Automatic annotation (TrEMBL), chains A, B:
Tagged with keyword Transcription: yes
PROSITE patterns in the cross-refs: HTH_LACI_1, HTH_LACI_2
Key words of the record: DNA-binding, Transcription, Transcription regulation
Protein name: LacI family transcriptional regulator
Annotated HTH lacI-type domain residues: 1-55
Organism of origin: Clostridium thermosuccinogenes
Alphabetical list of SMART domains matching this protein: HTH_LACI
Listed Gene3D superfamilies: 3.40.50.2300, lambda repressor-like DNA-binding domains
Keyword DNA-binding: yes
A GO MF term: DNA-binding transcription factor activity
A Pfam family hit: LacI
SUPFAM superfamilies (UniProt xref): lambda repressor-like DNA-binding domains, Periplasmic binding protein-like I
DNA sequence: TTGTATGCGTTATCAG
DNA sequence: CTGATAACGCATACAA
């Protein structure tokens, strides 16, 4: 079924059919009716590839998600979905596998589907200036930003200071009297990620508080394809096995913290009485856990809203913006003060 | 940048460039080099819309997910991603909002991107024969199936018997001596969904065991946009407020069960000593909860694998298949036997 | 081995 | 108000 067939069936020209479909140009009510009925009778659906080929720009916005199964993204996805719909733009949510370069996909999609804007959620800190130029449409990075060497006017960003917040989490545990503090990594990579920055914050906090760094207190994930819970679970067991004197753990993501907490329970430890656990992100699940997990809460809602606002501002010709949000340390019950009174 | 520009830059014809890109037809090593360097120098990326327009069939497979933030889908998504990649096919994961008809999107995508197969994950039981004919490519429904009136040869399905499993969950609680059993709905809709079938199973179990149905023991969600945890949490509080004698709750999804469990703890109740909770789905989170939530576990891994197998079988000309898997009742610690000894 | 020409389904321009 | 017709970027049969 093509527009041509419909034109034939309705006894009109193809441009008339096109006008009916897109509400562009004038069509008499009579012919409109004819065309409409021909369309629905033949179940005609316009071909977007052909349309994209002709159109130079559309109202399509894409949200590239690096690892859509990551629960931290859930709330932001929901908000972005809603806000974009509210503004009358279609949203394309595109998952990007860990093994795939999200910028490649974004550039490809921008071209294929004539995107007018793109949001990159997750991802790394490795985007180069050249890539943004290639992309050549408004782009907002969410949860990451590009290297300082990249011209900031080429993109917007909404993120947090992962190093600082990693420091804050660790300092929190230190303030509660902990000295043997474990750290759980998901998958340490050579490229800078939010996770590696949080780790740097952990290291700095230890150093500034005069606590010697002990590599045996750091566990990281061997298999990259395991789910977050399981990674946290396994790594917690490892840490406990080789550090019986460990009194606290900082997991760089809530999902790991929950896995770690479960491991503690299985090992016969009580959280927080035997071991304190602090997570990162502030996903809902951490709140509903029992006990609720203390965490560094990213203001996901505000971040998503800012992201959308900035994106639409850029689409309307506004300048790029770079926002760094502060997190909130939520103290809820998974950490204990062990200072001697 | 178009293929034409590249041809010009490399001093060759456009068909030569095309041959290089697609490895179709013979090209001398010398010209291939020239073309390649022209491509990388100009950062040329072929336009997929144009390509799709020409090509009549591709190896693209789409996974339509009705509500990608649903954690139950996580594991299946990961498996499908892996299995499809393993077979050398590109996978497009497409989120479908609750307010959008997934079949519409599938048909549109099938046309626009020349899909060779599609998986519908989630969704409802409302697909008609006409829609499958329109789709006209191999299609596997995952977790649902179409009405009996639809010619089964038009599609495949991999699902469970939601009514039976809902019955099983309820019967389990009854066998433990519970008589005042609450039921938590996410969002009861008029169209048949897995959730409504599980509810039917709940009703039948009560009836067959001579327990009078009490509507005050059923709570359902008013706002559709709240997250699962919160819904479970709120509804549990409602149920408890009006049924102090309630000793057990069946939540039709684990995520609700977790929210309900947290509500119980907040209300000062212990799980399972004061109240038993059984969930449905078997998501990881339920396992890592403390206590681990008893649940009707869907064999997500096997279901995803079957789905892929069937899909590729159909793509290679095989017949459609319909599989119904049995769930497993996982008893782990959130339910208590209250039978008097 | 290479280049030219045609058409995929649309939209948009421009005469009627 | 309506209908030819020329692109859009690419793949491919066919000619060279």
């Amino acid at each position: 079924m093509t527009i041509k067939d419909i034109a034939q069936a309705a006894g009109v020209g193809i441009s008339t059919v096109s006008r009916v479909i897109n509400n562009s140009g004038p069509v008499s009510e009579k012919t409109r009716k004819k065309v409409m009925s021909a369309i629905s009778e033949h179940n005609f659906i316009p071909n977007n590839s052909a349309r994209n080929l002709k159109i130079s720009q559309s109202k399509n916005i894409a949200l590239m998600v690096k690892g859509i199964t990551n629960p931290f993204f859930n709330k932001m996805i929901r908000i972005i979905e809603r806000e974009v719909a509210l503004r009358g733009y279609p949203l394309l949510i595109q998952n990007v596998d860990y093994s795939v370069n999200e910028m490649d996909v974004a550039i490809q999609e921008a071209q294929d589907r004539n995107l007018c804007g793109v949001i990159m959620m997750g991802g790394s800190f490795t985007y180069t200036e050249e890539r943004f130029r290639q992309l050549s449409i408004p782009c907002v990075l969410l949860t990451v930003k590009a290297d300082k060497s990249v011209d900031p006017s080429l993109y917007s960003s909404v993120c947090i200071d992962d190093e600082k917040e990693g420091y804050r989490a660790t300092e929190y545990l230190i303030s509660l009297g902990h000295k043997r503090i474990g750290f759980i990594h998901h998958s340490p990579s050579d490229i800078p990620t939010p996770s590696s920055l949080r780790y740097k914050g952990y290291l700095r906090a230890l150093e500034e508080h005069g606590i010697a760094f002990d590599p045996s207190l750091v566990a990281s994930n061997p298999a990259a394809d395991a789910s977050g819970f399981d990674v946290g679970f396994q790594l917690m067991k490892q840490l406990h096995a080789r550090n019986r004197d460990m009194t606290a753990v900082f997991a760089h993501a809530d999902i790991l913290a929950i896995g770690a907490a479960k491991a503690a329970f299985v090992l016969g430890l009580d959280v927080p009485n035997d071991i304190s656990i602090v997570g990162f992100d502030g996903i809902e699940m951490a709140e509903y856990y029992h006990p609720s997990i203390d965490t560094i809460h990213q203001p996901a809602q505000q971040m998503a809203l800012s992201c959308i606002e900035t994106l639409f501002d850029m689409i309307q010709g506004g300048k790029s913006q770079h926002m760094t949000y502060n997190c909130v340390l939520l103290k809820r019950g998974s950490c204990k003060n062990i200072n001697t009174v």
